[in-house]
C-alpha cells in the first residue's frame, strides 16, 4: 500500500461562510488525501467556524488577532505534517492538486524548494487576459525585480522545515503582501521558489470589487513590501504594476457588471 506524504492544508478564513463549504468539499475530494485540513478562523463575525466544524477531518484553529499574516502563522504553527500547503477560502482546488504536490515533493531534488502556482480567476471578463496579466506581474515581474518569483498565498506548498527556519522572521504588519514577504525570507534562508504554471487554482478576484480608495491602498502593498526589504526596484514596481492595474480596473468592473446583467437577463428568460 502506497504511503502518502503528510501534507497539512491550511486555510485562513475571515467571514468566509459563503465560500468555505465549496472550498472544503474540493479539498476533501482530492485523489490524494491531506494528512490534515486546518481552517483558521480569524475572529470572524459570521458562521465561518461553524461551517468548518461541520466537516469531518477538518480542524478549526482560532486566531483573535486580525490580519492574514496572523491567521497564516497560527495555521502554520498548528500544522503537524511534514509539508504545509496553503490556499484561501475562496478557492476551489482541482481534484488532482494534492497529488501534484505529493509528486513534486517525492522528488528529493525539491526538499529545499517552496512550490507555488497561479490563479484561474472566476467570474471576470477577459479571463485569459486577466490571468496572463496576473501571472506576468506576480511571478515573472517579481523575478526581475527581486531575483525570484513570489509565493502566492492561494496556491502554495513548502516543507515544514522551511517554516521552522523562517517563521519567526516573517513580517506580520498590515499593508504588505505576507506571501511575498514569506518568499523573500525563504530565499534569504537558502530556499528556492518554484513557479509551476501547470496547476492554477480557481479563485475570486475580490480586490477589484471594493471602492477605488481601497483598491489604491491595496495596490501600494507590492512596492511597500519591496521597499521594506531594501529593494530599490520598488519604484519600478510602482510604475509597471500599481499604476497600470489601477487604471485598468474600471474596465474589469464594467465588464463584470455587464456579465452579471447578461446572466440575470438569461435567467429571467429561463423561468
Question: What's the arrangement of secondary structure elements?
Answer:
Blueprint: E1 7-13, H1 17-28, E2 36-41, H2 48-53, E3 58-62, H3 68-78, E4 83-86, H4 97-106, E5 113-122, H5 127-146, E6 156-159, H6 160-166, H7 178-188, E7 192-204, H8 212-219, H9 221-228, H10 234-270
Parallel strand pairs: 1-2, 1-4, 2-3, 5-7
Antiparallel strand pairs: 4-6, 5-6
Question: Which properties best describe this structure?
Answer:
single chain, 271 residues, alpha/beta, seven-stranded mixed beta sheet, 10 helices, 7 strands, globular, disordered C terminus
Structural description of this entry:
The chain is an alpha/beta fold. Strand 2, helix 2 and strand 3 form a beta-alpha-beta unit. It has 10 helices and 7 strands.
Shape: globular
Cα-to-Cα separation, first versus last residue: 51 Å
Task: Give me the side-by-side strand order of the main sheet.
Answer: 3-2-1-4-6-5-7
Helix tally equals 10
Q: Give the C-alpha Rg.
A: 19 Å
- SSE pattern, N- to C-terminal: EHEHEHEHEHEHHEHHH
Could you give a short account of the major beta sheet? 7 strands, mixed
Structural class category:
alpha/beta
Helix content: 40-55%
Got a strand count?
7
Can I get a quick summary?
With 271 residues, this protein is of the alpha/beta class. The chain has helices spanning 17-28, 48-53, 68-78, 97-106, 127-146, 160-166, 178-188, 212-219, 221-228, 234-270, and strands spanning 7-13, 36-41, 58-62, 83-86, 113-122, 156-159, 192-204. Helix 9 (221-228) packs antiparallel against helix 10 (234-270).
